[in-house]
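ARCHIVE CARD
CATEGORY: sequence design from structure
SOURCE FIELD: tokenized fold
FIELD CONTENT:
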């Protein structure tokens, strides 16, 4: 539940606490528009559905369950994250190999 708290500016302070990704998230935002604040929660909930290792129904869990057995069709979001991970792994390997 996101609760507004008035402060001395035109913005409100929104405070929320919820369980996601196997942890407790405490979210504090200063924003004029509650819709923008709710968008942050919705985005985090989407990431939880895709990437949570703590949910048996997440896309990440499905990838892990099928690992080595069958190809897995993934969402654009998961594909982009995997591509970013590969990029940073390769970049890290280049840095380590220079020492």
């Amino acid at each position: 539940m996101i609760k507004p708290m008035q402060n001395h500016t035109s913005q409100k302070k929104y405070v929320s606490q919820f369980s996601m990704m196997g942890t407790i998230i405490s979210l504090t935002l200063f924003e004029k528009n509650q819709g923008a604040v709710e968008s942050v929660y919705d985005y985090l909930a989407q990431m939880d559905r895709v990437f949570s290792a703590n949910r048996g129904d997440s896309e990440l869990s499905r990838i892990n369950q099928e690992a080595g057995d069958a190809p897995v069709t993934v969402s654009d979001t998961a594909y982009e994250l995997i591509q970013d991970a590969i990029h940073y792994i390769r970049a890290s390997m280049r840095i380590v190999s220079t020492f």
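CARD ANNOTATION: The chain has three helices and three strands. Residues 3-73 form one domain.
SHELF: design records, drawer C
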